[in-house]
């Protein structure tokens, strides 16, 4: 289409490179802003945000003296749910059952504290993450299209080159 309009091989060849470059730039920009936002909110004071409030906790997976994974739980007394948050495993240690063990720890915590369900939201694009949640018993309950991560400006260019789907999952532990 570009060649038909411009009659230029050079422009036709450069357009995909330009578009991929824009996608990379905006993806990197959004992800770095999101990480900066996380590092200046709950992850800046884990003790205050996850260890002190009742119904919340934070776990660290250590293997051979190295931190290889983390997960947090944040209780919500209003609807008697606990949210699984910040699950992350070092890419060098994925596929070894660490994430499943961390997920089970949150489920155990929820049962011990009499929560009726565990909820989570993820923007993960890798199907392995979704399979992990489903293997733990979570049910996919919805998708929010064009989700705005913290730190996103939602500018026209950002929306053109970086879109996020937010998947919600729920595991019912007991009926209320």
UniProtKB/TrEMBL annotation:
It comes from Furnarius figulus. Its main location: cytoplasm. Residues 20-163 form the N-acetyltransferase domain. It comes from the Eukaryota. GO terms for cellular component: endoplasmic reticulum membrane; mitochondrial membrane. PANTHER family: GNAT FAMILY N-ACETYLTRANSFERASE (PTHR13947), N-ACETYLASPARTATE SYNTHETASE (PTHR13947:SF11). Belongs to the NAT8 family. It catalyses: L-aspartate + acetyl-CoA = N-acetyl-L-aspartate + CoA + H(+). The gene is Nat8l. It is found in: Cytoplasm; Endoplasmic reticulum membrane; Microsome membrane; Mitochondrion membrane. Keywords: Acyltransferase, Cytoplasm, Endoplasmic reticulum, Membrane, Microsome, Mitochondrion, Transferase, Transmembrane, Transmembrane helix. The chain crosses the membrane at residues 6-26. This is N-acetylaspartate synthetase. GO terms for molecular function: L-aspartate N-acetyltransferase activity. Catalyzes the synthesis of N-acetylaspartate acid (NAA) from L-aspartate and acetyl-CoA. Promotes dopamine uptake by regulating TNF-alpha expression. Attenuates methamphetamine-induced inhibition of dopamine uptake. Pfam families: Acetyltransf_1. The lineage of its organism: Eukaryota, Metazoa, Chordata, Craniata, Vertebrata. Its EC number is 2.3.1.17. InterPro entries: Acyl_CoA_acyltransferase (IPR016181), GNAT_dom (IPR000182), NAT_camello-type (IPR050769). It is a single-pass membrane protein.
